[in-house]
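Retro notes, item 3 of 5
We never archived the inputs for the adenosine-5'-triphosphate complex last cycle. Fixing that now. Sequence and ligand:
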Amino acid sequence: MNSPTAPPALRATGLGRRFRGGWALRDCDIDIPAGSVTALVGANGAGKSTLLQLAADQLRPTTGQIRVFGDDPGSTASRERRAFLAQDKPLYPDLTVAETLRLVRELNTAFDTEAAERIVRAGNIRPRSRVGALSAGQRSRVALATVLAREADLLLLDEPLADLDPLVRHEITALLMAEAAERQLTLVISSHVLAEIENVCDRVLLLHRGEVRLDGDVQELRDGHTLVRGRAHEDTPDGLPPALDRAAVVESSRTGRLVTALVSHVPATPGQGMPSQDAPGRAATPFVWDQDRWETAAPSVEELLLGRLRAARAADADADADGYGDADGERSAA
Ligand SMILES: Nc1ncnc2c1ncn2[C@@H]1O[C@H](COP(=O)(O)OP(=O)(O)OP(=O)(O)O)[C@@H](O)[C@H]1O
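Structure as it came back at the time:
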């Protein structure tokens, strides 16, 4: 069990990393509790791989610091407690699967060879097959086997499911979840497959242009938002009800006469017409106005993240139109 005073699995404070093209990560404050399963999401170039590489000591910060179970990622203690699967899943193509597993065992103090072999066998991969002759999905399975068998407490997985067919993705996800539960692992998984996050992760961390835009418990985030759908209002340009505080509207879209909006329960300014929460942590009560015309529902994680991602992109477009963007593509926070 994790004691209440144990350090988080991953903590970033004022973390920034700059490359020649600009900041890949900037001013990030992040706490990922031990034992949690966090989905790391964001558009291409948002900074997900950079964050994972910083945690895996493959990069050093430009500003701030990052700690793995309280230690510098370069320390021996930290190296032994975390395992990293890079996005390109580097493996030696000329080695056989069995030789690959042997090599990883030799390079690591703790390695459960039997577990690795079990995972590989479950994918009908022959130990004598050359890695270079495997399909992308089979290579992903071997790479995941080498990481899962490391007996680390924190797994940093950069798009581990990207090359897998839906059936295998499902199997590997189930395997990850079973291992996570049994060994009380902390998982940080970057993914673009938003629909699959719902059943897998208890936390989400959304990055946008190197900044943290959303970070928290999935259920609390869902409880903090409402999806509103209905026939467009004639008297407002966005079709939303006049009484709805626009500061609370994360994002809205209109298709013909139908308007859909993602509404946050924490508006920038309190306003009339907001959904009220009758108890902390409980789902919001429905809107009090126009009930015949507006449906409200709790958003799925995919709807919530899509809304947040679209809102971030729209804010970028507005900033670009205002001439906010810098010459090297950096910008002020939207
Ligand atoms: N080694 C590097 N040298 C220069 N720039 C880099 C380097 N690594 C990343 N970047 C830049 O940093 C930014 C963040 O990249 P990163 O790979 O972390 O994004 P990502 O969220 O993982 O993207 P994707 O979803 O496409 O994998 C991008 O603008 C990228 O071009």
